[in-house]
Amino acid sequence: MISLKTIVINAGPKKRGFNAEMAKSALRGAQSVGAEVEFIDLYRLKFTGCLSCLICMRDDFESCKCFLRDDLSPLIDRILDADCLLIAAPIFFSNPSSHYMALLERLIFCIVSNKGENLFKGKVNVGLIYTFHYDKGYFEESVRPHFKHSEDILKMLNGEVEIYSAEYDSKKTYSTSFDGEISSEDECFTLNLEKTYEIGAKLSN
């Protein structure tokens, strides 16, 4: 049996802490169904957002490829060759992290023709996990609608798209300030671990 390829991305700045733990939980879910998994700390890579060079849209160059020479372009190649992409992205000032948005714009822009057509013929399931310390009801009603378009364009990867909102209370989730130590007594944290594990397993199977 051929193992599916899953790429898991921590799109937050901390290697430890809530967002990273959600990404690692999704990773464990993918591993539980036998997926071949690669884990990426996005903030450790050196890259920028799209520079509008437009080489990816030229007919005399390979399609579905970003030509910027930095750490992100090889990752985009691997994402488009994978079966599943799992991303945990923290919400800053009512928007996903800037590094996540830079990845998204370059990933999607390079698969679109100059006529707006989707050139990608593969299929990549996507699990997107938002992490935040808002009230979850407020987040779903007042914050998330502002970036619905950025969620919808993930469908251009032609796979299943599942989005999960993982809220946390910093006073309960972190045992001491924001040092990255997680309290095992937080029931909400435990529930979020279970849900992200399930998403990783489902989309990687």
Automatic annotation (TrEMBL):
Record-annotated NADPH-dependent FMN reductase-like domain positions: 5-130
Transmembrane portions of the chain: none
The protein's required cofactors: FMN; [4Fe-4S] cluster
Listed Pfam families: FMN_red (PF03358)
SUPFAM superfamilies: Flavoproteins
Keywords: Flavoprotein, FMN
One of the record's GO molecular function terms: oxidoreductase activity
InterPro entries (alphabetical): Flavoprotein-like_sf (IPR029039), FMN_Rdtase-like_dom (IPR005025), ISF_SsuE-like (IPR051796)
UniProt family annotation: Belongs to the SsuE family. Isf subfamily.
Name of protein: NADPH-dependent FMN reductase
